[in-house]
Design the sequence.
């Protein structure tokens, strides 16, 4: 399908503040970006770079006053996300080396502390996709999805204690559980068509059967219509904006995903 | 200044043909891309990746019939290109490692065969920028710049024998001469404001005084208003399109560079 | 000085187990490796790769029985580690892009929770080296260094609560504090000449004044004679060995650092 | 099999000269380096880095007088090189992106000029391995292999005109022919067990059937016992030593490959 995805950020800046933003749709996967706008007001110098995960980053210094960032992209994406019951666990020895970082514990996914729970949940299942399916179902059933319930990221341990969370929190817990049984898992930040209430979204992908598969603990039925912004080990890697110091404040963020029509040639990833 | 740069390609395709294109303005340098369109008709699947020089590449399979590619970007770029008389030669030991490939001979820059000429031209000059300045002046004075004079790239040796060439040819010869005295040099493909006749353009950058400096053997006065598309060792690395096999033909290419106004904050790189 | 550094690992393997090891001295910095041995018994297939930090990794599948890994290297290293009182904080905008990951919170360095403490410790100091010096001194004075006191990594928050730790723990806390005031900091795993008791060691480096500087919260006087094995955001990135599953056990690890003589040409980094 | 490979270089240095060397066996493939020595006399500072192909490079400044470099490694390598009659051509769209550079023309492999010859040789063959087999046989039969016949690299066009060459020259011509029909091909520099006369060796690898396969136009029967030093587009990328300026001279190079015994676990790659 064709989607137009837009994000509007309005900051109040009290003193010169460095920001690193990730707001452009990801390049290099099966989503085709055919129009893109990236407007910053006032006009300031922006330094673009690509991080080790392939995410585009924009660095800038916000000056005192209002800062407005408006991004909008028109993108072709698959209508459906692939499902692959039975897809096999890949032995560590056979993983592509760029997948290895997604086996390690990270800031918000303390996978070194979840082995017992993950093994209890999955010991009787075929290694791979089916274990992830069980883990994600367990997260969905045991952690209440409460959009807007947290202002800053909390870690998988904290999510489990608390029993509720935003999309990112549920994804972090699922990722920690997958990694603890040696299944590579990464956080995805992006847009999701028809998300209610509309906002930026986060979900996870796991590497089984020699490719990455999408999972979303906030949904009972896995939807397509996803536009990826960034991949990372967890929210520390893929913050939409990372602010250095206390010199500015996000006043407002608006997100839109508009359906622009059918796209004949991308059906399923 | 603000520029809108556009390139329109029209292919006739006789049988399924793979193409690799480099048509998006380069990211990660002091040019800010704030709007971009990338339209392919008919809609086909495109695979984006980034090569080892940081260039964005688009891979696609063209199907029988007409293929139209239309790219357009609005970009902020410096009004002037920096000049740095006296900037010093950087010892090999002190070059950043990502600069090293630009010391080696390459397909169209046989720097292993130009040492005698380069030393003759530059032996009495301060090592670095001033040597390059001399080399580029020598190319300008000895190789006639004839836009449209060649259909396919020829190498520095061939350019010198022939005595004339397109922008790319003059750049290749200058690059070969610079590298032959251990000055890193790279080819730049891009757009140039006010180029006559309008077309895509190619020039070179050399690494002296701890940064890359622009040189253009087709111009007596070094202009700003440059939008970089890609960097490479020579035209083999930065072909606007690379076609695999004989299954298609570029029928027409149109290029526009429109001045959109002053930009207050980028004066000189 | 010239050092011979050796590490001997003996595993008991109960079932086929994947391991990722980091045991070779790091390449690409001012330490010259002129002899190296890497012996695995029994002989098994090893897959080497380089991670995004430049660390060499060895992947292997350990089979049932004993597994012995013996590495030994002869290396030239600086006699002293540089000290740079007054070296300036580098603005985010001016950091090389490969330094940026070391600003983010990570598994064992929850820098997003240490801003208040770091600002309290350093508010009256010149931004940069002097702040780090204060932070590291504070860690040394407030966290008891107890070699052998922990079996698995704990995080900076846990270290602060606990009040004691191994070299890695003290480094993690210092790193979290530095990053929380936007100073890039990374964990270093390596060998240290004259360490008592001899073991593998961990310390930190911070990026100020446009280069990385060594700090070591376990020492009152900063020693040279350091051989770097690996760099990372924290111990999750630079585990000497990372074991997948519960199928093997490290029975014994022996470490030696032997002084082989003076080296005339590397004095200080 | 187990091999000990050694290379001894002796330079006479007239004035300070920068050198970039590639002399360590390549890491990250199915060859296990279990001992390595890298001795430079006099002891001088060496800067190691990894190029975009994964090759380890050593940069140094040679000072006036004699410079001796002695490298020696003990390595486990496959007894045989795989042969794969019928392995299929991989469509451009399906090539891993890191393979793409090996499709382009390069300094010594002017693949943009060999399409007619390559198509004539291979038009009636199944696309892929069988075409390469034909090309390599044609090179073997038409270009005389004369070890020691050239001091510096010449290009595929020059090799074809001349009708004879060293191992590197034959490989360059075969590579140019393969690339001209869109088969990725790369030059390999390394050691070969039982080579007569003993020297460093060069051959090629091509990417078909989703992996790299070894070809050697100097041999009628494809031997195993190969230790890879470096990969590249051609000899410009993989020079054993690259000297900047005229300030030094290689007086002597000695190469040994010693058979150390059978290795039970690596039979064929």
Sequence:
């Amino acid at each position: 399908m064709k989607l137009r995805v837009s994000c509007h950020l309005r900051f109040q800046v009290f003193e010169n503040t460095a920001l690193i933003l990730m707001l452009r749709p990801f390049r290099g996967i099966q989503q085709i970006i055919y129009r893109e706008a990236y407007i910053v007001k006032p006009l300031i110098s922006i330094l673009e770079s690509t991080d080790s995960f392939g995410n585009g980053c924009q660095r800038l210094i916000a000056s005192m006053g209002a800062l407005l960032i408006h991004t909008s992209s028109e993108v072709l994406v698959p209508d459906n996300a692939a499902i692959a019951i039975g897809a096999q666990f890949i032995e560590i020895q056979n993983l592509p080396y760029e997948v290895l970082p997604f086996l390690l514990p990270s800031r918000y996914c303390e996978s070194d502390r979840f082995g017992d729970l993950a093994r209890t949940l999955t010991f009787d299942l075929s290694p791979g996709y089916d274990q992830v399916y069980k883990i994600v179902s367990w997260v969905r059933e045991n952690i209440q999805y409460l959009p807007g319930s947290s202002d800053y990221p909390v870690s998988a341990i904290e999510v489990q204690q608390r029993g509720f969370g935003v999309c990112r929190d549920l994804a972090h817990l699922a990722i920690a559980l997958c990694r603890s049984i040696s299944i590579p898992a990464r956080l995805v930040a992006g847009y999701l068509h028809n998300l209610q209430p509309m906002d930026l979204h986060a979900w996870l992908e796991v590497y089984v059967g020699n490719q990455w598969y999408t999972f979303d603990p906030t949904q009972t039925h896995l939807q397509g219509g996803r536009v990826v912004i960034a991949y990372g080990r967890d929210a520390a890697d893929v913050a939409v904006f990372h602010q250095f110091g206390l010199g500015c404040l996000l006043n407002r963020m608006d997100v839109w995903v508009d359906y622009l029509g059918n796209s004949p040639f991308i059906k399923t990833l």
About this structure: Chain D has a mean pLDDT of 93. The longest strand of chain D covers residues 248-261. The interface with chain C takes residues 27-30, 32-40, 43-50, 54, 56, 76, 263-266 of chain D (CB under 8 Å). The helical segments of chain D are 115-122, 129-142, 156-162, 167-180.
